[in-house]
Amino acid sequence: MLNLRPLLFILGIFLSTLTVFMFIPLFFALFYGEETVGAFMIASLFTGTCASACMHQGRGHQLHLNIRDMFLLTSLTWLIVSFFAAMPFTLYHGINYTDAFFETMSGITTTGSTVLSGLDKMDHSILIWRSLLQWMGGIGFIVMAVAVLPFLNVGGMRLFRTESSDWSDKAIPRTQDMAKHLFYIYIFLTICCGLAYHWAGMSWFEAINHSMTTLSTGGYSTSDSSMAAFSNQAHWVGTLFMAAGGLPLLLFVNCIQHRSLWVWNDAQVKGFLLFISTVSIGLAFWLWMGHEMTPVDALRLASFNVVSVVTTTGYGLTDYTAWGALANVAFLFLMFAGSCSGSTSGGIKIFRFQIAIAIMREQLKQQFHPNGVFKERYNNRVISEDIVRSLVTFVLLFLLVIVVLSVILVMTGLDPTTSFTGAVTAVTNVGPGLGHTIGPAGNFSTLPDVAKWALAIGMLLGRLEILTVAVLFHPGFWKY
C-alpha cells in the first residue's frame, strides 16, 4: 500500500516553500509598480491554500517512506511543483498554459529552453521568477542526487551512496544536516557569482538573476541576446561559475568540514576538468586558425560555449553552429556529456563514461587472460555487477527516450535537425539545440503545442535520470 498521507504532507511542505518564494517576485512587482502584482498574489494564495490542505491531510502520521514511496514522491514533486509554479506565467499577459508549463518545466529542470522573447523589456518580477525557478531546481536536484538517487540505485548512482543516502529513521537527521550544509554552500557560491558579475559590469538586478541561473546551470537570461549582451569579463565569470556548478557540491562541503583539498582528488572532478580543458583548447585553436580571431578571443568563446554545453547551462554567447562542420559535430556530442554527479547539471554525466572505459579495459584484459579475475575500481570502490547493470539500463533508456521523442517531434511536422537536437537538448537539459529554429540564436516559441508538451516530458525524464520515472510504468510497481 502507498503511504498517501505522508506523501501529501511532504508535497505540502514543497508547495509551502514555493509559496514563500512567490513573495520575492511579488515584492519586485510592488517595488517597480508592475501589473504582475495580481498574478503573483493569486498564484501565492492558491498555492498556499493547497499546501495547507495537503499538510493538514498528512499531519500526525509517521513519515516513514519505503522505496516505492520514494520513487513516486520524486516524480510527483517535480510535476506538481511545476504545475503550480506555471500559474504566474499563465496570469501574465495571457500566456497560454502550454507555454507557461513549458517555461516552468524548463526552469525547474534547469534546462533553459524558452518560449519567451522581449526579455530586455520584460517585467522585473517575471525575470526574477524565471531565475528563481532555476535556482530552486538546481539545489533540489543536488539534494536528490546526493540523498535519493544513490538510495534508489538509479543509473549506477550507488557508487556515491553515503550515510545521507540511507533513508532509515536514524539517517533522517544526517540527511537534514547534509541538506543544510549543501544549501549554505549553494547560497555562498551564488553570492560570490553575483558579486563577480557586478564587478564585470552588470547591474545589480542583472547580476542577481545571472548568478542564480549560472550556478544552477540553467541558462535563463534577462536579455534576448543572453550573455552576448554583456562584457568579456562577464563571459569569463560565467565560465568559472558554470564550471563550479558542474562540480559535486557535496565535495565542497567535505572539503570545508575536513579542511583539505580532497575535492581535487576525486576521479569525476579530474575527468571533468581535463575534458572541458582539452575540448576548449582544441576548439580555440580551430577558431584561431580558421576564423581570424585573436588567441584570447578564441579561447574565451570556445571555453564559454564548451562549458555552457557540457554543464548543460545553455547560455547563448555566439551562434557556434556558424563555426563550421567540426564545431557542429563537436557540440552535438557535447550535449550528451554532462558534468559531475551531485552537481546541478544534466546529461549522461562524466562518471558513467569513466565507468564504461573501466569496463572496456576489464573486458580487454579478460580477452588476453581468459582465466584471470579482474575487478576494476572507481574512486577506490569496486565496480559491482549491480552498478554495471544499472548503468547499462540507464544509458539504453536514455537513448530510447531520445529516439521516441525525436519521432514524436518529426510527426508534428518539424524538420529532422530540429526534432533530433530538440529531443537531445530536452533529455540532457542543455537548453538550445541546433538549426535555425531552436539553435543558439532562436527559441522554442514557434513549435507546435504537442511538441512543447513532449519536450517538457523529456526535460522531466532527463532531470530525474529516466529510471526514476520509468519504474512507475512497470505493472509490478503498483501490485503491492
UniProtKB/TrEMBL annotation:
It is found in: Cell inner membrane; Cell membrane. The keyword Metal-binding applies. It comes from the Bacteria. One of its GO terms (molecular function) is potassium:chloride symporter activity. K(+) binds at residues 110-111, 218, 312-313, 429-430. It is a multi-pass membrane protein. Coiled coil: none annotated. Pfam families: TrkH (PF02386). Its main location: membrane. Keywords: Cell inner membrane, Cell membrane, Ion transport, Membrane, Metal-binding, Potassium, Potassium transport, Transmembrane, Transmembrane helix, Transport. The chain crosses the membrane at residues 7-31, 37-58, 70-95, 132-160, 181-200, 234-257, 269-289, 320-342, 387-411, 453-473. GO terms for cellular component: plasma membrane. Belongs to the TrkH potassium transport family. PANTHER family: TRK SYSTEM POTASSIUM UPTAKE PROTEIN (PTHR32024:SF3), TRK SYSTEM POTASSIUM UPTAKE PROTEIN TRKG-RELATED (PTHR32024). Low-affinity potassium transport system. Interacts with Trk system potassium uptake protein TrkA. This is Trk system potassium uptake protein. It comes from Shewanella atlantica.
